[in-house]
Amino acid sequence: MAILLLADHDNAHLSDQTAKTLTAATKIGGDVHVLVAGSGAKAAGEQAAKLSGVSKVLVAEDASLANNLAEPLAALIVSLAGSYDTIIGAATSVGKNVLPRVAALLDVAQVSEIIEVVSSDTFKRPIYAGNAIQTVQSTDAKKVITVRTASFAAADASGNAAIESISAAANPGLSSFVGDALSSSDRPELTSAKIIISGGRALGSAEKFREVILPVADKLGAAVGASRAAVDAGYAPNDWQVGQTGKVVAPQLYIACGISGAIQHLAGMKDSKVIVAINKDEEAPIFQIADYGLVADLFEALPELEKAL
Ligand code: FAD
User: Fold this and answer.
1) What ipTM does the predicted assembly reach?
2) Residue ranges lining ligand 1, Cβ < 6 Å
């Protein structure tokens, strides 16, 4: 058994999504080789080599691989696929873009967003917005898998794997990189934050959202999330949305403020270790999954909390 793990990185830094995907890969069992494909990606390759459980790191550097374009990256993975039984990656925007293409090119089914490894060919994954867990067995000779990393702890960094440089595959030339518009923030990134404070429709405006949620986030060193209702109303930017059609998070602490607890929101945060809900309606469904519930007006409770912090 050999497993090829597609690393998530920005050339300089390996994302912790890779260390979490590695935990899933080691549960499948077999030699794990990490593929770091990029341009000037030596540093990310060295970080991958330190993860314990990795037996080899393959670093492919080429201008065509600089921006995680699905087409050249999938061509590279397919060119390596003959040596592997399993190809695995995090269910991030890169993994979700590249691995279905790999599965299609290999003519196998993809197993998406696994949350548990039952055996080398059997996995658990959420369906119906997390309301049911499906156990799937893949009979394909090669498995192509994406991992919901919130369900796996990160592998530690006590390894020392060999690093091998490999060539890129021929670029199919189906896409080219034009540019990206990245949001810059001093706050922790939502999917890797240890603490998240989220606001809902109750905030009422973008100004109130900033005025009430952000000072508490600053005091806690927390990332900021939002319900879809808050995002749709323009109170919070799109990339803050938590839920079925937003980000899936599992921080140590999730504080939901003025969020009712619709299943589509819960699908994105219910695996958080400790959930705190502040809502003025004691019947709000969010209280059913909250570890600590405060029935209060958030416009009074949050400034008080900030003061206390
Ligand atoms: P509401 O449901 O309106 O709740 C507001 C809450 O604030 C209420 O419980 C109220 O009691 C409380 N409140 C009001 N004033 C105060 C106050 N002063 N102090 C304290 N509490 C107060 N939603 C997501 O969040 N993420 C998703 O990814 C997502 N994906 C979806 C996908 C699909 C296909 C569909 C159909 C829906 C999706 N939704 C998603 C929307 C979801 O169904 C809900 O509509 C949404 O989550 C509601 O947001 P909310 O809780 O902020 O608003």
Assistant:
1) 0.99
2) 200-202, 227-230, 241-246, 258-260, 262, 264-265, 268, 278-281, 284, 297-299
Write the pLDDT tens digit of every residue in 160-213. Answer: 999 999 999 999 999 999 998 877 778 888 988 999 999 999 999 999 999 999
* pLDDT attached to residue 273: 95
Report phi then psi at 199, rounded to 5. -120, 150
Contact 175, 69 (CB under 8 A): yes
Whose CA is closest to 51, among 20, 88, 87?
20
Q: Which CATH number, 2.60.40.420, 3.40.50.1220, 3.40.50.1360, 3.30.1130.10, labels domain 193-306?
A: 3.40.50.1220
Which uninterrupted H or E stretch holds 225? strand 223-226
Going from N- to C-terminal start, the domains of the chain cover 1-164, 193-306
279 annotated to a ligand binding site: yes
Q: Which atom of ligand 1 is nearest to the CA of 199?
A: 52
* Nearest atom (ligand 1) to Cα of 298: 19
Spell out the CATH class of 1-164.
alpha beta
Looking at residue 90, what is its pLDDT? 97
Measured in Å, residue 230 CA sits from the centre of ligand 1 at: 7
Model pLDDT, residue 130: 80
Quick: pLDDT tens for 218-276.
Answer: 999 999 999 999 999 999 999 999 999 999 899 999 999 999 999 999 999 999 999 99
Q: What is the DSSP string of 22-76?
A: HHHHHHH-SEEEEEEEESS-HHHHHHHHTSTT--EEEEEE-GGGTT--HHHHHHH
